[in-house]
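Ticket closed. Logging final result for Aminopeptidase P family protein.
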Amino acid sequence: MFQTFEVTSSPETGPARLAALRVEMQRGAVDGFIVPRADRFQGEYVAPSDDRLAWLTGFTGSAGFACILPDIAGVFIDGRYRVQVQSQIAEVFTPVHWPEVQLGDWVRDHLSERSVVGYDPWLHTVAQIRELTKSLEGSLIELRPIENLVDIIWEDRPAPPKNPIRVHPDTVAGERFLDKCSRLGADLKKNGINRAFIALPDSICWLLNIRGTDIPRNPVVHAFAILDDTGRVQLLTDAPIDDQVRAHFGDQVDVHSFDDLDVLLSRMADSALQIDPATTPRAVLSMLETRAAQDPTFTIAEAEDPCILPKARKNSVEIEGSRAAHLRDGAAMVRFLAWLDVEAPTGGLCEIDVVTQLERFRRDTNALHDISFETISGAGPNGAIVHYRVNEDTNRPVKLGELLLVDSGGQYLDGTTDITRTIAVGDVGKDEKSCYTRVLQGMTAISRVRFPSGVRGSDLDALARYPLWLAGQDYDHGTGHGVGSYLSVHEGPQGISRKAATPLEVGMILSNEPGYYREGAFGIRIENLITVKDADTVAGGDDRPMMDFETLTFVPFDRQLIDVTLLSGSERAWIDRYHSDTLEKIGPLVDGAALDWLTKACAPL
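Final structure:
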């Protein structure tokens, strides 16, 4: 099993650890200390050695941070984690609703003037510190970079990962890394930039056609890189490099340890080096500022990570790989749902059984490299915890008359999958069916939309919410996130949410996952992956280029939960067509009971 079910949150340890941290704050002459979820690579998922927020507070969500002051310890969480945090932290910590409450405002409310708030400059980006500094202007509260105080008190902290690098074949990458480096280097030169510092491991893995296992569920290598305008790369990593990887890099990539960064920067005379303030650690900018002060010919420029958009625009080989991965994954999901349809009504299943059996079906493909995140298996009220992770303490029976929410995915060499289905176990209430149907209507709206160039995910988000809004309902997460190509299951900058400001482009892969959650009762989410493509012309339409979405995921919806009376004719037609396509694509990949189940599940509404 990739997934395990041990209890990783320990609220009872929080008070002693908080007290020890406050002792270190006094020794360091600071009145506050910020503990982010992120590591120095700003990833959503972190290695055990970097899981400081969970170690200190007990909160295990993938987003959030804590700010520890002498008299209050705030744990800042967004709408996805407001139920989860209640059971994971001790009373010495105070949940703070973020982003409604901003850190700067909260600090000003709880600290007096001339107080000092410490932070680890490796764990915060340039943009984050600038924003926080601006929010504290006029308060005389100082932000001070200091040694990480959590690391001082974390006596049994695990060692950082140093796992081998693997070559990602050109046959699935769709482009040689030499060509990527040359193309992006030429763009730097055109913009008058000699070098770009790249801080994100998934950007580096995409650029160099490599993968790794430094982070669970995300096949990335812990690394920084410097790309120059000739396409040459300085790679900084502590990962072991074997002969195959060295041959792959050839003369194009020089490998250094992380400790060499300062030396590398000191050698860059008469140079313009570009950083992305949204991803570069503040500690790196400090090094660059020191270098610039010593050498007036050295300048610092700022722009977006040069890999961000090229990585998001999947090429034709990556798109075809994603199609293949989703058919393979879809067949595993159909086998799982057919099994669940027989076993769940017996009353003998629990949430862990669901996770275990689903992973087995994916493993049976003989192509699974990992799951793409911890499978969410939420029965009844646990389904209302948006990013619920079942463990031995929370494991709940799958009961008749309740909903079961299953959000899961696989990491395959040719693609990353992410799918959510909500299933009725036996007969459920009319209210659950109405809510499910509204969520399905929102998903259908995103699936069917057409839009011109320049439209952003923020422009589309309301389409998914409209049926829920009419009923006075909503959900506290984005409608969709970007997805990598055998990379991170959550990839920027593309997305569908109020914050998604990047225009959508052909080749981007996103999730389409509206939901609805009723605390203490049930949760509903339905998710397919989609990719942006050029839309076919419409007879009688304007001569204007348009885009739309191709659906990549093919697994039936639970027809027991669909209230057909709420659907429009066009919505019903889209669902019937989706089910017809699903039977056509997945039917040849399954047999026996799974094929019988699929045939019934895909019958017209």
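The longest helix spans residues 316-343. No further action required.
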